Every structure is written in C-alpha cells, then in structure tokens.
Write the structure tokens for this entry.
Amino acid sequence: MRLPASIVGLLAALLCLSAPTAAAGATGLAEIAGLQVALRAAGTYAGTVDGIPGPGTAAALRAVQQRAGLPTDGIAGPQTLRALGPVGLHAYGSRAMRAGDIGRDVAALQFKLAVHGFASGNFDGGLGPHVARALRAFQGWAGLTADGVAGPSTLRALSAAPPVSPVRLFAPLAVPVSDRYGPRGDGFHAGVDMPAPLGTPVMTAGFGTVSFAGFSPSGWGNVVIVRHRFGLSTLYAHLSEIDVRPGQPIGAGVRLGLVGMTGRATGPHLHFEVLLRGANVDPLTAIG
C-alpha cells in the first residue's frame, strides 16, 4: 500500500530523532506540531508544542502504541494516528477546515497562524471562535477573502515565510531577553520578555505616535502602543507607570513609562511586541 505524501513526510520527520534541539524561540514543522497536540490530548506528551521531532515526541507515541496494543516503534503510522482519537485524524492539507472542525490538521493550522503573527490561544486541535477570528484576520492581512475557511488559497499563503520587521528599531531596554518569541508550552509567546528592576525607564523603539496608553484587561496591565511608519507598531506591557498620552507624537529613545509587573506577571519585566499591519513579528528581527 502506498502511503499519502503527508504521512510519508510525517514519518520521515519523526525518524530524525537524533537532531539537536533547536534554539529557544525556533519553530519546526506544523505537521509535527499537530501531532504533538494530538499526543497532548492523549495525555502522553507534556513538552512544548514546537514542531520539532525528538525523543519526547517518540516516547509519547510509543506510550500511545503500547496502550493501543500496537508495535511500539515510535512512528506515527495510520494505526497509531487512529489510536490518537479525533485530534489525531486528518492530515494537514487533506481538507478545507471550517468552524467546528477537529483534527491534527487544525492543530497544524493553529501553529502556522501563530508563526505568521496570528496566535489564537492554546493549541488544541479545535477550530473554535478564537481560531476562526485569527484565521479571518490572517486572510484579511494576506489580501484573501476573510471567510474563515482554510482552503487551498489560505494554505498557500501560510506556506510563505513569516513576516519580519522591514526596519531596525531600538531596544526599549538595554538588557538581555529572557523569554523569546515562539512556542511556549501548548501556546505561543507573541513577544519577548526583558527582565529589569521595578521602575527602570522604558524607552520608545522608534519615532511615531502613541495610539494607546492605559490599562488593558487582557492581562498586559498598563500598556503603551506606539504607531510607527511602514505599518509597524510596538507594544510595551506590564508597566508600573505610563508617561505618555494617546495621540502624542514621540521620538525614538524617549521615556514612555517604567518597568513594572501589572497585569498577569510573575516578576518585574517588560513584555515587548512588534506588529506589522497587525501581525506579530519576532521583535528580534527588528532589534536583534
């Protein structure tokens, strides 16, 4: 029997278990991320959904196989995928995905949307309201009909390289990054974290206009957003103090507030994001 190309690619990726672990913030194959989500749903994988095959993914597969009475070879063949249940079904690209769909293809879609700047919460393999909203936002960003259906044109757009900042920006703090942009647990960290003592001045990454300055109920606490040229915006979260106002023109390297831990934060740090026409991009492509 000849296996579909999607299954062959999945098996080949999972056989590369001796490859070194990728650096923090890196992303791997969306199809592997979808498999990792299915393994999480099965209760055998607790690692990061990063799309990078490795010993943890293979061990989780063997645990599923043992439980299902299958050969424990650590390879995601058709029987193993069926044993994973609803989230293990449907190869990425095998169907158009719509609201209410469940499968590892949906999990791969969630992963690809996040990598392209439209994170939708935890990766769970279900095309719920948050994923549908992120999908429509990506489609609009990519110049497609925002119908919330992940068909061939949307999948083609998601096969392109993720967006990066078109210009260089200044770092808002002269400190190392502690938590980078990319997969984190079963979700996606859409910015970088910069730990610094409480009250450390935070500087603008470039000149522009303040578009928001206030408290955000989403968990960011005190937030400032600055709109720059070329469709870029920068976001500065968890501030203990805000020193600017909406509508204010502002130069580069100007103090806009102080490091804090407002909102959902476990310690004083700056959460910093860069967005291109509304899509999150890796801030290190601008300040790295």
